[in-house]
């Protein structure tokens, strides 16, 4: 391994990382896989090491939330005085056992695989309705008109929320503005003020939803979450609201990125789009997994050392943070043959995009079904689609890789 001084310290705020992080990731992974960031944390980038950190629940966890944020903002920053950071600190994915275990188990008990799989016919109906809305036109922005709307409508359907309600457009817009608190950087005063306002609006909306479900139960996910509060150790209404905002946001933000990133990669590699078009039902699952691996909608995630330990033979002291570069690990040639090649026939789902260990994504099953259905449906409905991959607009967000726009055209139909 080359000396650390030979490698520029990773700067996650570098705008060059947004459209093309892969050369930087390759340099770190191959020349300095245990890397010290200028912000005061370790960076690991090889598949074996990233997986070891994510799976090691004994030595790594989320740690002290406020202390972790002060690495960026300084020792005097009052983290929990900000509603958006206070909300984030209470989301179970940012907590360690036993609180994490208790809440996650209750969420998984409501968001069962059976409930999710039973939705597939409805998910296909939603995909059809969306393409019916723009197919005859011969063009669409695949991000705003499909990749985002599709999972939003699915998660609304699952939760029993009326997608056509007047407040939904503002509610959906609130998610990315509130979720800036997930980013590994200092937010500007304006960004933080907006995130704080948006999270309070989201909390007020879901407070009303849960009050409604307790008074008028239905067969939806919100009713199921609300009913856990009637059992010993169940979710309080506040906990249910916190969880639901996370599920609602992740339920479409993450899936939208998987679909959008996958469509971009499929058309940047037109032979792969042709393979999907030739066999939509047979290749859609492979397209989903390869989009997750090759494009890594979750680029990185943090862990904190809970005790003195080591990573790839290097000591890590208790309290030190480790940034696991999932995007780099997903292209590690030690794990994946020809890793920079996008290949939907790879049939290797051993990527780390859904995380690992106790923090493995609770919505992975739903996201996979949605992405598979989306790729299959679009290949059948719009096989002659041409996508402007060069004009794609990437979101200015390091941790969550995704697009804000992706224009497509096809022969207009009468």
TrEMBL record:
<protein>
    <submittedName>
        <fullName>Cytochrome P450</fullName>
    </submittedName>
</protein>
<dbReference type="GO" id="GO:0016705">
    <property type="term" value="F:oxidoreductase activity, acting on paired donors, with incorporation or reduction of molecular oxygen"/>
</dbReference>
<keyword id="KW-0560">Oxidoreductase</keyword>
<dbReference type="InterPro" id="IPR017972">
    <property type="entry name" value="Cyt_P450_CS"/>
</dbReference>
<keyword id="KW-0479">Metal-binding</keyword>
<dbReference type="GO" id="GO:0005506">
    <property type="term" value="F:iron ion binding"/>
</dbReference>
<comment type="similarity">
    <text>Belongs to the cytochrome P450 family.</text>
</comment>
<keyword id="KW-0349">Heme</keyword>
<dbReference type="GO" id="GO:0020037">
    <property type="term" value="F:heme binding"/>
</dbReference>
<dbReference type="InterPro" id="IPR001128">
    <property type="entry name" value="Cyt_P450"/>
</dbReference>
<keyword id="KW-0503">Monooxygenase</keyword>
<comment type="function">
    <text>Cytochromes P450 are a group of heme-thiolate monooxygenases. They oxidize a variety of structurally unrelated compounds, including steroids, fatty acids, and xenobiotics.</text>
</comment>
<dbReference type="InterPro" id="IPR036396">
    <property type="entry name" value="Cyt_P450_sf"/>
</dbReference>
<dbReference type="GO" id="GO:0004497">
    <property type="term" value="F:monooxygenase activity"/>
</dbReference>
<dbReference type="InterPro" id="IPR002397">
    <property type="entry name" value="Cyt_P450_B"/>
</dbReference>
<dbReference type="Pfam" id="PF00067">
    <property type="entry name" value="p450"/>
</dbReference>
<keyword id="KW-0408">Iron</keyword>
């Amino acid at each position: 391994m080359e000396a650390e001084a030979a490698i520029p310290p990773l700067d996650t705020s570098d705008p060059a990382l947004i459209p093309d992080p892969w050369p930087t990731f390759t340099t770190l992974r191959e020349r300095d896989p245990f890397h010290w960031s200028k912000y005061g944390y370790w960076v690991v980038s090889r598949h074996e090491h990233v997986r070891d950190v994510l799976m090691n629940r004994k030595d790594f966890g989320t740690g002290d939330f406020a202390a972790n944020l002060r690495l960026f903002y300084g020792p005097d920053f009052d983290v929990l005085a900000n509603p958006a950071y206070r909300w984030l600190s209470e989301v179970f994915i940012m907590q360690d056992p036993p609180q994490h275990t208790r809440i996650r188990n209750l969420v998984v008990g409501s968001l069962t695989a059976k409930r999710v799989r039973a939705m597939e016919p409805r998910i296909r109906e939603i995909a059809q309705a969306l393409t019916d809305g723009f197919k005859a036109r011969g063009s669409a922005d695949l991000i705003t008109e499909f990749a985002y709307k599709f999972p939003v409508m699915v998660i609304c359907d699952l939760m029993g929320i009326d997608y056509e309600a007047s407040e939904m457009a503002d509610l959906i817009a609130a998610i990315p503005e509130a979720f800036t608190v997930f980013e590994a950087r200092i937010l500007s005063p304006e960004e933080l003020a907006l995130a704080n306002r948006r999270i309070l609006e989201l909390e007020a909306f879901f407070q009303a939803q849960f009050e409604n479900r307790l008074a008028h139960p239905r067969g939806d996910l919100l009713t199921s979450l609300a009913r856990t509060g009637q059992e010993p150790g169940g979710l309080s209404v506040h906990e249910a609201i916190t969880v639901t905002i996370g599920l609602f946001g992740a339920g479409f933000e993450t899936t939208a990125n998987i679909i959008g990133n996958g469509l971009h990669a499929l058309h940047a590699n037109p032979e792969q789009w042709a393979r999907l078009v030739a066999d939509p039902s047979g290749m859609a699952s492979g397209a989903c997994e390869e989009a997750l691996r090759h494009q890594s909608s979750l680029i990185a995630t943090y862990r904190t050392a809970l005790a003195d330990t080591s990573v790839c033979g290097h000591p890590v002291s208790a309290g030190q943070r480790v940034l696991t570069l999932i995007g780099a690990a997903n292209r590690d040639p030690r794990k994946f043959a020809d890793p920079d090649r996008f290949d939907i026939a790879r049939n290797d789902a051993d990527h780390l995009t859904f995380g690992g260990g106790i923090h493995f994504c609770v919505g992975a099953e739903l996201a996979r079904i949605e992405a598979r259905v989306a790729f299959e449906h679009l290949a059948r409905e719009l096989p002659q689609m041409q996508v402007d991959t060069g004009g794609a607009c990437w979101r200015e967000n390091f941790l969550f890789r995704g697009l804000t726009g992706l224009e497509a055209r096809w022969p207009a139909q009468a």
